[in-house]
Amino acid sequence: MSKSIPIPRSFSLIKKGKVSFLVRKDYKDRLLQQGIEDFEKYLKRGSQSTSYLEGRIFHPSIPIGDGEQMVLRQYIHGGLFQAFTGSLYLFGSRSFQELAFTEEIRSCGIPTIQPVVAVHQAILGPLYRAYLLSLKLPHSMSLIQYLQQIGSHPSCEHLAMKRKTIRSAGLLLQKFHQTGLFHGDLQLKNVLVVGDEILLIDFDRSYRKKALSLKERMKNLLRLNRSAEKWKRVGLPVTRTDRWRFFLAYAGEDVAIRRAMERAIRTYSLRYLFYRFGWALNRVLGA
Prior knowledge:
The protein has 287 residues and is of the alpha+beta class. The chain folds into two domains: 125 residues; 141 residues, Transferase(Phosphotransferase) domain 1 (Transferase(Phosphotransferase), domain 1). It contains nine helices and twelve strands. The strands form three sheets. Strands 1, 2, 3, 4, 5, 6 and 7 form a seven-stranded antiparallel β-sheet that branches. The longest helix has 31 residues. The protein starts with 10 loop residues before the first strand and ends with a helix.
């Protein structure tokens, strides 16, 4: 496990055998009393299956008292690597890094989830498994679930709500990028809708720098657009107008980003054929 990862001030480091925990201090006593140090037994005893976040896998939730629940996310390789390595990682500590980064994002005023525990489980030598547990937000849904709920033919009221939500998402990503933050996996399932508020989640492989380049910003935008294309192919009611409304809210008066997107769209068709091949291959492999 990397020793260079800073421990946020509101968290404590706990070690038991081959398992290390970063635990939020105001939840520490409660979780220790519930037996979180014996992590595998804790998961079996407390987890409940839920589709809290739309994606490749289900995320179990764990009741922790006072009406609160934690959502468990186990780190699992995506794409072609999943068939060979599954949940095993080599060197570093993905969950500790993401927890620290999420706390940094929260300190920047970017709406996101509240992490409670990061878990690093050593397996053999530098091999490990990683988990991140965060507070479950009641009545929340991914942008995928939100668009499915709105449907293809929304009422005037729901259409206005949809437009407001899409615009809010564009403005949030604009703020995220202006703060120098880059999302490592920006896709529809990592945009959360909670009432009138939009949150960004899942910051594995994300980073921050003084200022993002135009190329980095476009990389995030095109990744999100690719996610929309992928879900549209399986029936998600997301239109080209929806995507342009998001982009225009994001771009504002920034002429450079508008021109970059126009150039990207002109060359997108060839790249889209490549991505369609990759999606088909993933379905064959069950990824």
